[in-house]
Amino acid sequence: MQTSSRLYHCLLCHAQVIICSHCDRGHRYCSDGCASTARQTSLARASKKYQSSRVGRFNNAARQQRFRLHQKHKVTHQSIQFSSPNAVLKAAQTRRKAVSQGPTQRPVMVCHHCGEACSPFLRHHFLRGKVFKGRLRY
User: Which of 7, 49, 99, 112 sits in a 20 to 30 Å window from 90, CA-based?
Assistant: First the structure.
């Protein structure tokens, strides 16, 4: 059965993405790792902002001082580490060959997240989005 789906553009790579209503949780990025890349960028920006603040500079100085004190008590040479003679070797995993059942036809519109067939009529907005109508609450 074809489900309702939404078409959107990934905010990072600008690829067109079709997502079914079952997978749609307000996605803004495609499923190719753009969300994790955007998250890392956001965290780096927040970290840089914090470290440039007065509190961040003081916390960094205190952390560096603790690190230098710890380095004074550290031994410079490591001991020789022998491998255990009873080490267990991992068994090689056998791979199954994919049995080809001939060419399969996929529907034209499929969800990019789960692969489910979608309706050819695509939405551009959220299904359960609340449009704010009224006055602001304070």
Answer: 99
Residue 8 lies in a domain: yes
Calpha distance 58→66 (Å, rounded): 13
- Over its C-alpha atoms, the chain yields an Rg (Å, rounded) of 27
Q: What is the rounded distance in angstroms from the CA atom of residue 135 to the CA atom of residue 91? A: 66
Longest Cα separation, the chain: 74
Contact 32, 13 (CB under 8 A): yes
Among residues 76, 46, 50, 44, the alpha carbon closest in space to that of 63 is found at: 50
Q: Taking a C-beta distance cutoff of 8 angstroms, is the pair 112, 17 a contact?
A: yes
Q: Which tokens in the block code for residue 124?
A: 């551009």
Residue 79, domain member (yes or no): no
**What's the domain range around 66?**
1-72+106-131
**CA distance linking residue 105 with residue 38, whole number of Å:** 34
pLDDT in tens, 46-82: 999 999 999 999 999 999 999 998 888 776 666 666 6
Q: Which residues contact 114 (CB under 8 A, 6 or more apart)?
A: 20, 22, 23
Euclidean distance between CA atoms 44 and 91, whole angstroms: 41
